[in-house]
Amino acid sequence: MAQAYKTETGGGGQESDRRVPRLQRLLDSVRSDRRIWRRGIILAVCAVLLALVMVLHSQIPNAVGNFGSLNETFLPWLGVFIPPLLGLALLRRSATALIAVLVPAIVWLNLFSSLIFDKTGSGGDLTVATHNVNADNANPSGTARAVAASGADVVALEELTETAVPVYEKALAATYKYHSVQGTVGLWSKYPLSGVKAVDIKLGWTRAMRATVTAPGGQLAVYVAHLPSVRVKIEAGFTARQRDKSADALGAAISHEKLPKAALLGDLNGTMNDRSLNAVTAQMRSTQGAAGSGFGFSWPASFPMARIDQILVKGVEPVTSWTLPETGSDHLPIAARVKLADTAS
């Protein structure tokens, strides 16, 4: 009996040894690895630098190649470097690198986590849309019909050419009773327009306009703008001087608006993170940021990487914001529904 008891006890001990949790064995191996804190120093430095580029993006100077604005245009994409850094830290079995990778991950989430979640709502009384239709669009009538099919009450179009304007006018006439074209931008509306005028954004030709839309919910000052394009050149960096000058002029015009409710629809050739657009973005808010789902990238249409087309509002409550399907343009159209009417308290 005693021998049998001993045999069972020994067998049970062997079974217990086999059941030692894998995590415990991993922790034991980590404790025995004295180099775990010394490995991966370069990875850790890279992770910290990545975090600094994100958290101090507004401090990066524009003096050389406008690098600060270039970084801010594609700022959300810096997050793609975090998973590779994490993978390399695990491969190197470096505790130092693993902890360091947490820093850019936390910074990225702090900057952009609000854009990940769905903030779209319901209701509202006015739908607006904007689209850079592309001067080289081979199917302007199809593009016009696609935008009209969105159900928007007010549509802004940018990059209109003289020959394409009649095509857009004809294609949109059945849906929109009122419209005005100023230079290369135009506004189509189901509701009356008044106070229509060109807005000088210091270009020498017209690429911005302003009109009052009298909708059932009240009057809304609508600005349509197409700011100058920017270029990334090896010898000059991010060339955006004219865009920045025009943004300042547009911001000044909006700041003098007398109506309390206003919206800006257009291609700003810059994102909400770009400090060079502060003259505009400091006084208006993005419908995508307030009531969208995801980043709402609009350019380029084939593989959207940045939201340079914007719907910005002030004195108006955004309800929902979204990106429309691809048309014949190199930009995606975007739309938003807002609450224009004042709600009784």
TrEMBL record:
Keyword Transmembrane helix listed? The answer is yes
What SUPFAM superfamilies does the entry give? DNase I-like
MF term (GO), any? endonuclease activity
Q: Which UniProt key words apply to this protein?
A: Endonuclease, Hydrolase, Membrane, Nuclease, Transmembrane, Transmembrane helix
Domain Endonuclease/exonuclease/phosphatase per the UniProt entry, residue ranges: 129-331
**Stretches that traverse the bilayer:** 41-62, 74-91, 98-117
Q: What is this protein called?
A: Endonuclease/exonuclease/phosphatase family protein
Organism, as annotated: Streptomyces vastus
